[in-house]
From TrEMBL:
It comes from the Eukaryota. Transmembrane segments: none annotated. Tubulin-folding protein; involved in the second step of the tubulin folding pathway and in the regulation of tubulin heterodimer dissociation. Required for correct organization of microtubule cytoskeleton and mitotic splindle, and maintenance of the neuronal microtubule network. One of its GO terms (cellular component) is cytoskeleton. Supercomplex made of cofactors A to E. Cofactors A and D function by capturing and stabilizing tubulin in a quasi-native conformation. Cofactor E binds to the cofactor D-tubulin complex; interaction with cofactor C then causes the release of tubulin polypeptides that are committed to the native state. Cofactors B and E can form a heterodimer which binds to alpha-tubulin and enhances their ability to dissociate tubulin heterodimers. Interacts with TBCD. This is Tubulin-specific chaperone E. Belongs to the TBCE family. The gene is Tbce. It is found in: Cytoplasm, Cytoskeleton. It comes from Chionis minor. GO terms for biological process: cytoskeleton organization. Residues 27-71 form the CAP-Gly domain. Keywords: Acetylation, Chaperone, Cytoplasm, Cytoskeleton, Leucine-rich repeat, Phosphoprotein, Repeat.
Length: 541
């Protein structure tokens, strides 16, 4: 490795062994002789100080021990794009053929398979048996190229990429040594039909002023900028150059505040902001008018509430007019009011919301699922599980019964002229009126079973056993005969301290010797199964 320091080394990315760093200083460090590079390591554990040596500060680091000095001959400043391609695909004599291990791009937490890579890998395997290298003509046929972790730092000679790889459409440039957006543009300008670009895990600088509209990214549909330290303001400055962009991945960039995109990102269908700690849920209002946005991924963004203030109870918001799929898992949402708000989204079909404090409000995950389904009218998929029509109907009927007494107490009435539930009730249950229109108001008989039960003939004395857990002693419980199986399960989760497993219930009766009856419908009451006093409920998980 030459000890020469390349021109413009400040701010450049480098490799030292297997560790990545950014050059923060070039020069002497007395009393030693010669040139040193002051570097800030990506992994601060690799460093020794904050850029200060013997009382003199040569550069600054984010981490108090994130910096070191290294000699230039220890630094690998990388190679040009085409050299990396030739190395990866076996065009250099000393380089073995790579067997297509990079056949997928990872965008956020989503893996996108490239069909072309399979055929390229197969070509490579065939060629291993014959000539063990790509010819230039075969390289020119490549549609999908991955040079992940190949130390790419610059574009190389002008027009060399376009002459050698004229048919590229998809490029994976993740985890290289790219230091600036200008380098990305220099590479992309030589790829006429670029559709997919992954430049994640490159810590780079971005333009500080609006970029001029050019044709460099005119056909780009998918762009991944995860872990690049880009800000939302910088995204908007670059966005005029992405006129056809449909998917944008921005995970783990320390983005905290958003701004409204004016006349940019109007073609965007998917936006992933996961692992950015947003200031608050109101930040979402600033991106709420992207006209074609169908999928929004907000995993681990720190949001604690969602609110669409432009729409009242039972009305649809004008925000996110095209949004069909929303992921808000791993956040801090603790109130049901945020779930109620999601019913205002006119096209929402799929929701992921697990790992929020709200999920701890119900011990039984099935009960929780039923409540969410009942609250969001058009939902078809919840936490990646399809909602079948029968499940929706059961959830809505049960919701109507569960909160029927609250409805009555809040001013609800079977007489339409006297039915005036309070604002507080409507705020807590904005879909209740719609469910009553759909199925009719709950009948008095349906609600009686949910009143406090004091009469002995309304309670069943049952023995609870766990046949597969002999260490668990049988328990005797008095349960209302109108209690649904779903509610029984919720009680048993708490009573038996069962972890989050799927419970299977059945019962044995002295009248049905040797026969076990499954309690297989969560929405049916105990009385539906003709359970009587003295019967034994069997619990398995």
């Amino acid at each position: 490795m030459s000890a020469a320091v390349p021109s413009g080394a400040l701010g450049r990315r480098l490799l030292c062994g297997t560790e990545y760093a950014t050059v923060r200083y070039v020069g002497s460090v007395p009393p030693t002789a010669g040139t040193w590079l002051g570097v800030e390591w990506d992994d601060p554990q690799r460093g020794k100080h904050d850029g200060t040596y013997e009382g003199t500060q040569y550069f600054k680091c984010r981490h108090p021990r994130g910096g070191s000095f290294i000699r230039p001959n220890k630094a690998n400043f990388g190679v040009d794009f085409l050299t990396a391609v030739k190395d990866r695909y076996g065009l250099n004599d000393e380089q073995d053929v790579q067997h297509g291990t990079e056949n997928a791009l990872v965008f956020g937490k989503k893996t996108v398979e490239f069909v072309g890579m399979d055929s390229v890998a197969e070509q490579q395997r065939q060629m291993t048996l014959t000539e063990c290298s790509f010819s230039f003509s075969q390289l020119n046929q490549l549609v999908d190229i991955s040079v992940r972790e190949c130390a790419v730092s610059h574009a190389g000679q002008k027009e060399e990429i376009s002459r050698t790889c004229a048919n590229i459409r998809h490029i994976n440039l993740s985890k290289n040594l790219i230091s600036s957006w200008e380098t990305v543009t220099a590479i992309a300008s030589q790829v006429q039909n670029l559709e997919t670009l992954n430049i994640s895990e490159n810590k780079m600088t971005f333009p500080s002023t609006s970029t001029s509209v050019s044709s460099v990214f005119s056909k780009l549909r998918i762009l991944a900028l995860n872990q690049t330290e880009i800000t939302w303001a910088e995204v908007l400055l670059c966005a005029p150059g992405w006129p056809a962009l449909e998917e944008l991945y921005l995970t783990s960039n320390n983005i905290t505040v958003l701004e409204r995109p004016d006349n940019v990102l109007q073609t965007l269908k998917l936006l992933d902001l996961s692992d950015n700690q947003l200031l608050d849920g109101n930040q979402l209002h600033l991106i709420a008018h992207l006209p074609r946005l169908e999928q929004l991924i907000l995993r681990n963004t720190g949001i604690s509430s969602i609110h669409f203030p432009d729409a009242g109870f039972g009305c649809k918001t004008k925000m996110f007019p095209s949004l069909k799929r929303l992921a808000i898992n791993d956040n801090k949402i603790s109130q049901w009011s945020s779930i109620n708000e999601l019913d205002k989204l006119p096209r929402l079909r799929s929701l992921q919301c697990h790992n929020n404090p709200l999920m701890d409000t119900e011990k039984n995950p099935e009960t929780l699922r039923q409540l969410i389904i009942a609250k969001i009218s058009q939902l078809e998929v919840l936490n990646k599980s399809e909602i079948l029509p029968a499940e929706r109907k059961g959830a809505e009927l049960d919701y109507r019964k569960i909160f029927g007494n609250d409805w009555l107490a809040a001013g609800g009435n079977w007489n339409p002229e006297e039915n005036k539930p309070s604002e507080e009730f409507l705020a807590a249950h904005p879909r209740y009126a719609a469910l009553c229109l759909k199925y009719g108001t709950p009948e008095e008989g349906e609600l009686k079973g949910r009143q406090p039960l004091t009469l002995k003939n309304q309670l069943l004395t049952l023995t609870i056993k766990c046949p597969e857990k002999p260490e668990q002693k049988p328990v005797e419980k008095k349960l209302p005969e109108s209690m649904t199986i779903q509610r029984v399960k919720g009680l048993l989760y708490r009573l038996l301290k069962i972890p989050g497993s799927e419970l299977k219930l059945s019962y044995e009766s002295s009248k049905l010797e040797g026969k076990e009856v499954e309690l297989d419908n969560d929405l049916k009451p105990l009385q539906f199964y003709s359970i009587e006093n003295g019967d034994c409920v069997l619990v398995r998980w």
